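Weekly sync notes, structure subgroup
Attendees: PM, AL, DS (notes)

Item 1: joint prediction request from the bench team. They want all two components modeled as one assembly rather than separately. Inputs as received:
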Amino acid sequence: MTLENVLINALEQGFIYAFMAMGVLLTFIMLGFPDLTVEGTFPFGAAVTATAVVSGISPIYAVILGSLAGGIAGAATGLMHTKLKINNILAGILTTSALYTVMLRLMGRPNTPLLAYDNVYGQVLGWIGISQDQLTAVQNHIAIILTLSAVVLVTRLLMGWLLATDLGLAIRATGNNERMIRNLGVNTDNTKLIALVISNCLVALSGALACQVQGFADVGMGIGVLVAAVASVIIGESLFGKRSVGWLLTGVILGSIFYRGVLALALRLGLPAHDFKLITAVLVLGALSIPLLKRKKRKNGVLNGGTVPRWHRTVLNLLDNKADGRDVAR
Amino acid sequence: MIRLKGVTKYFFPGTANQVKALDNINLHIRPGDFVTVIGSNGAGKSTLLNTVAGVIEVDEGRIELNGKDVTDQPEYRRAGSIGYIDQNPLASTAADMTVEENLAMAFMRGKRRGLSRAVTRSRVTAFKNTLTQIGMGLENRLKVPVGTLSGGQRQALALAMATVVQPKLLLLDEHTAALDPKAARLIMDITDRLIRTNNLTTLMVTHNMEQALRYGNRLVMMHRGKIILDIGPKEKQCLSVPDLVKKFTQSSGDVFDDDRVLLAQAE
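Output from the run, pasted for the record:
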């Protein structure tokens, strides 16, 4: 792998997984909802897209369909949690588990190859009168990266806009201080549901775009994607700051590119690819535990104080089961 | 305005620890009333407020707001008419969001939240007006995350949020109890001023007898889930703290022994 390839890989994969990172940012960090559905929605988005393409639907519609299917999975988790009061982690696990069967039923087998079919990137190039066959491999990658970057940019702007609306503020407040926002007249069941649907649409979009690049969909392609997304979010938050929601969104996209870049570089340096998931897990664990170890040194550290990073607080709240501010001081 | 009829609430019902937190409460608050609620620990003061706000469902009895039965309405449905400030400064504001975002959320209290921009120029003008009324300089710190403010500033912001859209009823649950004495006095002064100028109907829980006597036009004393004293404006004016302790002993047959309340007089 040349350095050029490392860069191409970082950008291509980084942009593909950026949607997922934004989705994870929305649920894990903003909503304080550790949504494990994403491990299932990612391959689900791919499976739906692949099945749609095979059955003759135009790739662009197939991708949109895949993304929307992810939203339905998110709604399933959300309804289980809000209406049936299932624990948030268990609700995600239930959906993920169920999705596995749905995917196998949908595709009829664990894997659907797509190389024989048109993909969405070729379709986009076709709109401006270029055929994928005319381009060299590198040119093709660049075309894919340009297409992805445009979609990422639009998504970033849409998310930034959404999170600054009255509804967006209510969603963020649901994660920040649920009791307060209920007090202000928001049914937090609805904000959770909306956030889960949007988040899982984004995750499934990542899956759909991934299967279009790699030329197949596989039921197992979701394993470990969540940890990678969390890593991207952590990198984004720590490298590019959390001054505002806008910075956070941009940071998470850059974090995704950075993370994929490091992986590509490690691959180039000869690290075996099957070691990546363990390395990522250890890195995420390290990043999460450093502030915790620091916190233990401080006596009477306030759990919800400003010093503990937000992503980390979600984990702490999970441990202490203190989701809203009210429980903290009483 | 608000009427409670035979409101009863049990905690841990059906267990050995069953507690009657509210015992057949009947209370009628008229528009413009500023009622202070006092009582020792476990008297049911906060529970009373929480049932009015809808945070806690009642087991028996009815609650009417403006002649409408709201007993079965969840908290978020009552929110349009009720402003609520908790004693914990962390509870009434969202720490990770900015001052103006917090106010924008309060601005939409009880309204349908859609996809229009939350912090607009016209709203910011309204926020600045409200914050200037509060008088703690927060109008110059609109873009600051609330988590970086002091406890007093956060309660001041909570007051601004409770009044940026005039509520029909303001509930204050010992909202100065967690502050240092100086900040507590400041916040209490601001509260009193806001209530007077906006003529807000208020129910304020306090541990501080002196505070309960100084503010408001009506005083309600609770003991073991019951209202044992309900003192109107005339009688309240000439009442002192020792009188109140005496009245407590007469009405409840108990000795008033809550250190927090008794010590609070000395302040």
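Discussion: Chain A is about 75% helix and 0% strand.
Action: AL to compare against the crosslinking data before next sync.
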